[in-house]
Amino acid sequence: MKTTRTYTQSGRANGKVATRARILAAAKELFLEKAFEDVTLASIAKASGVSHQTVLNHFESKAGVVLGVTELFAAQANDTRYAARPGDVEGAVHALVDDYEDMGDANVRWATSADRLPELSAQMDVARAGHRAWLAAMFDTELPTDPAWREQLLDALHAATDVYTWKLLRRDLRRSRAETEKTMADLVVGVLRGIAP
């Protein structure tokens, strides 16, 4: 009897994990396709094939779903970005643009909405910090040791590689991916070589 109860509890736990993963996967796809405000708990429930209450049971609110989805976004971004070799400007920019081609439009929509939505604002701060940490990891050997100068260069690198820079080139100016990567790589090289202490 004890063994049967253990298997039943284990099966329920596995079912909860699978349901949570299904909800997050559906929410991620919705957030990639639609404006943040247009994704509702009801639409997430429908897309994941569960009830509205089930979504609430797992995440308590839309903010809870957002937290889970941003963790998925961050893991995917890290897998893509950190595949680049530190010090390789073209490789780093290529990896970054890979990430932006998948999630850049959603990033821009979220960043635009963050001023109005506190649950998004905190997540965007985390994303910016993650981007800055990636820049420091990729270009550490090129960065100065002086803290103030290092911060100045990181600010410039951030501007050169920000998702809004990608959006300007790819969406607003309609540049090809290759042209976008070249321009962003040129900006990074300019920052690394052009700022004097």
Automatic annotation (TrEMBL):
Organism superkingdom: Bacteria
Residue ranges annotated for the HTH tetR-type domain, each copy included: 17-77
Source species: Gordonia insulae
Protein name: HTH tetR-type domain-containing protein
Portion annotated as DNA-binding: 40-59
InterPro entries the UniProt entry points to: Homeodomain-like_sf (IPR009057), HTH-type_TetR-like_transc_reg (IPR050109), HTH_TetR (IPR001647)
Entry keyword set: DNA-binding, Transcription, Transcription regulation
Any GO MF annotation of the entry: transcription cis-regulatory region binding
Record has DNA-binding as a keyword: yes
